[in-house]
């Protein structure tokens, strides 16, 4: 009998997949480009004795953030997809156990991530040759990154076990990872705030801090044990063991829960009854549903389809109110520190990031879900035109985000105008609006063409939010190389130049992907993308469908295997 048969099968499949080897090359290439750009532009004013440590810290920081959230991309929908398609029960008709399925899914999704880490480590070893970084620190950094990847993948498996919805599983994974990473630190801060004089012993402080993967990362970056460590032995190894314990605990719970989830019946499941009560609260009683449906159907039928939940537009107001309350409390507590540029700008960018991710999720979810279950084809067979469908989706986004976004723009203008000139503040607000428009168009198009909802969300993030920053840094690198090649010396742009360059590249990217590409495809290729029944072979750099051929759908039993 083969031990862990699904794990063996998935590893064999991955060894024959071209993407497994292509991933290592792409990740290594990106790491080399980042290292080269930092060497040319990021070491100005840094003493030569610490340049190696500076490069090492930066590369490790980028890699740590990617490892922390990689589970939301790889494992968040691994088991929930099986439950939606009804193929999970077929696996348990055999003699497979829960841990066979869980570890098999983990093996299938972790191969590329581990290979990507192996491609990054040699690039992180280059600063060792420059001095300031020891081989032991390099080994600790690789172990900390591998430990963080394992935690993120295990959190994704656990969230996928409890969820059927792809979007909820992904955001649950992100929430769980952030809770493990920042929860112990926030808990210690609250306890110290609530108990003046700190009745917490140093050992307890060190033990709680070590539960977070950030603790081991801090030790790697600072090259010394934090002051809170009073545990027996080095604090780094305590953190590694505790994070491993949390990760294996999540996998153990997933393997125990999974065999029971697929057998649950709607009439007997406590979880199903709880879900019914939540839906009753969200959608309201029958009479209120009828009034709500009539009001929205008179405006646009697709608006009702995308806005059936009666409290949906209130969630954004709750988010804005919660962030405002935290900021006001911090302002009363710390005074003008919250109005300082170094505090205000990161706070605004973090608020924007979460709001944009929310808009992307709402723009992608409805069309992707209707396309998955085949309801979009039925919708297109009605007299409802493509333009009316798109208008209904935009009306739903407007109903949910327009008023809160208007309040945010006014408040941010009042806050930022004391730290920046009026043109720079207006450019920041203009790029926010342009991002929102581009995110809506690109999200709707990728919802029709991507393989899954998570791919649509991440594709939208990459095209609209990440690509402009990559173009900006590539421009700075090009100007730096051009300056050195022409003999003019290092390129030293002013703050105004950086701001105008960033604004121009961001606006051009929004126009390219949002208005020219996504909107044009939605208006002309909506029906083709919504009803296609073929497998794509290749896609162009803009994601345009390449030549494809028709294939017959696989039977459910073969698809499950």
Describe the structure.
The structure is a single chain. With 561 residues, this protein is an all-alpha fold. It has two domains: 1-263, no CATH class; 329-561, no CATH class. The protein is built from 23 helices and two strands. It has helices at residues 5-15, 18-41, 51-74, 80-85, 88-91, 98-124, 126-130, 135-162, 166-194, 202-210, 213-222, 235-261, 270-283, 286-297, 301-306, 312-334, 341-372, 375-380, 386-416, 422-449, 453-485, 495-531, 556-560, and strands at 534-536, 548-550. A two-stranded antiparallel sheet has the order 1-2. The radius of gyration is 25 Å and the shape is globular. The two termini are 19 Å apart.
Secondary-structure element string: HHHHHHHHHHHHHHHHHHHHHHEEH
Low-confidence stretches: 225-233, 264-268, 533-561
**Structural class assignment:** mainly alpha
Q: Calculate Rg over CA atoms.
A: 25 Å
What is the tally of helical segments? 23
- Count all strands and give the number: 2
Mean pLDDT: 80
Shape: globular
Helix proportion range? over 70%
Supply the number of structural domains: 2
**Strand fraction:** under 5%
The first-to-last residue Cα distance is 19 Å
Give the strand line-up of the largest sheet: 1-2
Largest sheet: 2 strands, antiparallel
